[in-house]
Specification:
The protein is of the alpha/beta class and 396 residues long. The protein is built from 16 helices and 15 strands. Strands 3-4-2-1-5-6 form a 6-stranded parallel β-sheet. It has a 6-stranded parallel β-sheet with strand order 9-8-7-13-14-15, sandwiched between helices. Strand 3, helix 4 and strand 4 form a beta-alpha-beta unit. It binds adenosine-5'-diphosphate (ADP) and magnesium ion (MG). The site of magnesium ion (MG) has 3 residues, from helix 14.
Length: 396
C-alpha cells in the first residue's frame, strides 16, 4: 500500500537531515506557545532521527508573514518550547538559508538539532521557487517531510526540496497517510461517514469521493439544513445554501440508487438567535418553527446516530453536528464523539473543528486516528494527490 520512502528506510547516522515539520502553532499574547499539539505530534520523528545520530535541521512556517522577516512570526518561542519538551537544547538559526545557517549546520554533531527560522520570511517559499528549493536542499543530505498539515501546498520546503534530495515520509506523515488511505481503500464494513460542519459547499468533493465507498452517511451540522430543504422540509432561519439545494437533492437520489443509506436529522435544538446564551428548544422536522434556526441535532437524532456508530466497522467523521463552540449547542457533537470513543469501530477524525471538539472532550486517545491536518485531510479525503506526498521518493 505504501509506495513512498519512509523514515525507517533511511540510514540517517551522521547525515544532515532536513525535516519539514508543521510548527504552525497558535501563540498567546506573550508570544508563547498556546497549544503545542502540532509540536508534540512531530516528537516521534524528531527523537528517532536524533537518537539514530542524524543531524536534525528542522524547518517550518508560522502564520502568514508577508514574505519578509517579521518578529511576530519568529520560530524563536518554538525552539524554546521544543527544547523544554525534549529536555535538551535546540539551537535557533537566524534564517532558513544563507551563509550563517550554513556555518551553523557545518558545526553540528550527530544527534544535534537546529531549528531554522520561518521559511515564509522568503517569498520564494510559497512561490515554490526552484532556486530557493536548491538553497534549502544544499543544507542537507536527506529530506524528511513530517508536515502533513502543509502537504496540500506545493511550496519550496514541502514539494520543491523533496524533488532534490532522497525524500521520506516522517512517522506522523506516515501515520496520517496510512489511516486516511485505509479509510478510502480498505475500510472494514459497515463503513459509516459522519459529515457535518457549516456548509455543504465545503464538503461537496468529499461527499462525491466517499459515496461509492460508504454504506451509511450521517449528515448533521449546518449542512444538514440544505439536505432537509432538498427533501421538502422547511427549516426556518437555519443556515441553508439555496444554490446547493438542487445538488443536495441529486446527491440523495444518487445515494439511493447506489444503496447508500443516508440519515438526516429528524429533530433539532433550535434557537431564535445565533448566540451562546440563546434559549434553545427541541423540535421535530414536522414542527420546525419559522423563526427558529437549528444550531444542533436533537436528542432523538443523536441517539439514532450513536446507535449506527456503535454497529460500524469503520467511521470517518468530518464536521461537528452543531455549533459546538456554544456549550448549549454542543450536545450532538459530543454524543457522536462519545459513541465513537466507545465503539469498536476504526475511527478516523479529520477537519480542524471536529478534531478540536474531540480534544476538548479529552477523547483523542480513544479514537483510532485523529488527523493533524485540517485542510490537508479534507483534500486527501477528496481523493486528491497532495503535492507534499507526491513529491516524496518512491520506495525501491
Ligand atoms: P471541520 O473544521 O471539522 O471540517 P467545518 O469547518 O466544516 O468543520 O465546520 C465547523 C463549523 O460549523 C463550526 O464553526 C460550527 O459552529 C459550524 N456549525 C455546525 N453546525 C452548525 C449549524 N447548525 N449552524 C451554523 N453553523 C454550524
Ligand atoms: Mg473548520
Amino acid at each position: 500500500m505504501f509506495t513512498k520512502l519512509i523514515l525507517k528506510d533511511m540510514d540517517v547516522r551522521g547525515k544532515r537531515v532536513l525535516c519539514r515539520v508543521d510548527f504552525n502553532v497558535p501563540l498567546n499574547s506573550d508570544g508563547d506557545v498556546a497549544d503545542d499539539t502540532r509540536i508534540v505530534g512531530a516528537l516521534d520523528t524528531i527523537r528517532d532521527i536524533a537518537e539514530r545520530g542524524g543531524r536534525l535541521i528542522l524547518a517550518s512556517h508560522l502564520g502568514r508573514p508577508k514574505g519578509c522577516p517579521d518578529s511576530r512570526y519568529s520560530l524563536g518561542p518554538i525552539a524554546r518550547h521544543l527544547s523544554r519538551l525534549l529536555g535538551r537544547e535546540v539551537a535557533m538559526a537566524p534564517d532558513c538559508v544563507g551563509p550563517q545557517v550554513e556555518s551553523l549546520v557545518s558545526n553540528m554533531r550527530n544527534g544535534d538539532a537546529l531549528l531554522l527560522e520561518n521559511v515564509r520570511f522568503h517569498p520564494e517559499e510559497t512561490d515554490n521557487d526552484p532556486g530557493f528549493s536548491r538553497r534549502l536542499a544544499s543544507l542537507a543530505d536527506l529530506f524528511v517531510n513530517d508536515a502533513f498539515g502543509a502537504a496540500h501546498r506545493a511550496h519550496a520546503s514541502t514539494e520543491g526540496v523533496a524533488r532534490l534530495l532522497p525524500a521520506a515520509a516522517g512517522l506522523l506523515m506516515e501515520r496520517e497517510i496510512r489511516y486516511l488511505s485505509l479509510a478510502l481503500s480498505a475500510p472494514a464494513p459497515p463503513f459509516v461517514a459522519v459529515l457535518g460542519g457549516a456548509k455543504v459547499s465545503d464538503k461537496i468533493l468529499v461527499i462525491e469521493n466517499l459515496l461509492s465507498k460508504i454504506d451509511t452517511l450521517l449528515v448533521g451540522g449546518g449542512m444538514a439544513y440544505t439536505f432537509l430543504r432538498a427533501r421538502g422540509i422547511t427549516v426556518g432561519k437555519s443556515l441553508v445554501e439555496e444554490e446547493r439545494i438542487y445538488f443536495a437533492g441529486e446527491l440523495l437520489n444518487r445515494a439511493e440508487e447506489m444503496g447508500v443509506r443516508v440519515l438526516l436529522p429528524e429533530d433539532h435544538l433550535v434557537a431564535r438567535e445565533f448566540k451562546a446564551d440563546a434559549e434553545g428548544w427541541v423540535c421535530t422536522n414536522e414542527a420546525f418553527p419559522v423563526d427558529g434556526m437549528g444550531l444542533d441535532i436533537g436528542p432523538e437524532t443523536a441517539r439514532h446516530f450513536a446507535n449506527v456508530l456503535r454497529e460500524a466497522g469503520t467511521v470517518l467523521w468530518n464536521g461537528p453536528m452543531g455549533v459546538f463552540e456554544f456549550d448549549a449547542f454542543a450536545k450532538g457533537t459530543f454524543a457522536v464523539a462519545e459513541a465513537l470513543a466507545g465503539s469498536e469501530a476504526l475511527s478516523i477524525i479529520g477537519g480542524g473543528d471536529s478534531v478540536a471538539a474531540v480534544n476538548r472532550l479529552g477523547l483523542t486517545d480513544r479514537m483510532t486516528h485523529v488527523s493533524t491536518g485540517g485542510g490537508a485531510s479534507l483534500e486527501f479525503l477528496e481523493g486528491k494527490d497532495l503535492p507534499g506526498i507526491a513529491a516524496l521518493s518512491d520506495r525501491a
